[in-house]
Fold these 4 entries.
Entry 1:
Amino acid sequence: MKRLNATQLQLIPTFADKENGTINMIVETPRNTRHKFAFEPKFGVFRLHQTIAEGLEWPYDFGFVPQTLGDDGDPLDVLFLCDEPTFSGCLVEARVLGLIRLEKNKVRNDRIVSAAMRMDGIAQSTDRFSKIDDLPKAQLESICRFLVEYSADQGNTIEYKGIDTRKKALRAIENGRDLFKKRKR
């Protein structure tokens, strides 16, 4: 079968504004759904990857940073904190807050934590967050618990390894971008 890719996601730059630490991300799974969607590069579409257990739903939009790769061979994962869900395939400019360190099946599988851009004249609950430590402790613990539990429900061995700063998250994005460039050659 001939490879088909109707999208050009591979052309979207990693950073929206590198100096300000804002990234581009592609939303795969919007918040408030039990479905997990995944981009299928072979066909250039989003496919239903799984449905999580009844009673659980995605607390925030979830997606990936274009032109990056993680240790697991997939683009870097991003959790996008925003007041309203977007949609699968939505290109979002996001402020990087930090990193949740996870190990999935003995392979590092971190999650970048980001927030909606601040907008003049529009108040959003995430406006007060500049770094991951700004999140209320209970909210951050809830996010970490969800990321571990939904993955464990899928039969993965997942370990929470801690939280890292915005600076380390941006370094991880740079490393992911370097790995992407190396693999592309």
Entry 2:
Amino acid sequence: MSNIQYAFIERGRVPNRSQLQASIDALGFDLKLCPEYTPFEDSGFLPFTLNGEEGPGFDIQYEAASELIGEDQALKRIAAGRDCCISMAWHGSMKDLACVMIVSCALMKDFDSVVSYEGEPPESLDRMLSVVPEVLADAKAQEARDASQSVQIKAKKPWWKLW
């Protein structure tokens, strides 16, 4: 099941790679954009390096805000006249969510975007920033659980040696 976060932004304010990376760095998180990242040209999975680990990321898509909004008055109010939407989709990984949250915070802080999780009312930048450390902690816990399960699976005898 996918989760989607929308960043409504003026098309002319969409940052290039170096601008977005500088904004992320200023927030103080160890998140590095893919060196080949190119706004508007990229779509699909966008990988990052999070705390030194390559591979987490999310699916990204750029579209005119009007395409997404359609007749939805709530989304229209959220977009508040911004003409572009950057959709960021992830699945169950907390590391992927951390990437989405950090990029969303950078877009809010320095590029005047409004961010909505699946059309919900937007949270403030301060609230979003306060959630990122919790998401990063949950990502570590998820990684520890996954490692523990992997060890348990490896410790079991193969099915053909059970008798």
Entry 3:
Amino acid sequence: MGNYYGLRSMCGGLSSDAKELDAQAGFEKVTTAIPLLQERASIIYGVGATDAGSTISYQQLIFDNEIIAGIRRMWEGITIHDPKEEVELIKALTPRGNFMSAAHTRQNYRRHWYPEIISRDTYDTWKEKGETIDQICIRKAQEILTNYQPSPLPAKVEGELEGIVHRYIPDFAYES
């Protein structure tokens, strides 16, 4: 992969010929994203795309974000260490101890990846909630569109962007 303009590479990825968020989309997106992440591509496009890139879907954007988070965590790998501290903690707190109050637990439990939309519930709990993955993605996308308030750009960055726009589009009108 080449280095252009300070970027390691820009690659197509998260590609799928699926027409909707389904097993095909998930499979194709994972299998196209892994090699690109393995090669440390700087920019991978195709997030939210379906039907070979002819359609963009809000729910697919949410799902692709989950795919990326899972793959990134996978790439971190597993740290092999001496479990002596954990064994001592289990001995000290079993049978009725509170592991969440232990400093070791608080320092280490965040290393695990917790998906935002993938269900880890039991079948009965999942069934009771009554939402498919597609419905969860649609709901989350609607929540983001309704509630997200972007932070304002720093004045220096905004000024630089305005300068670029004026340089390339001199008659560009700004609305107040």
Entry 4:
Amino acid sequence: MSSGLDLPAGAGGVSDETVSFAAGLVDRSGKAPVIEAALAHRTGRRRPLPVRAVLAALVCLALDDRPLFLTEATRLLFCRLSPASRRLLGVTGTAATQQAFLAACRRVRYCFHAIAKRWTPPRCRRTAA
């Protein structure tokens, strides 16, 4: 009777269905385009990894009950996803070697660092005790 979303069935890993669900959840939030716009520069090269992909990877890790570490998000995006899921998220390339994996880690950290640098936490209201 709830109007919420049905979670995909967990099969001990991240399936294409889970990735599609996570991408849809990120899209429904409407936050990825806002963050992309806040991070946009008029000059320079294109961002190496879409914000939507990083957010969807974190959702997938949470759904799979895994720690939300950027290294795990990198491993998910570049090593564990099917080519169809990578295309859905706009992730190009794979990390077949250790050097490629480290380069992928830098791409994810760069994206996340840019998000964290622009984000300011809401102000806390102190209540009188």
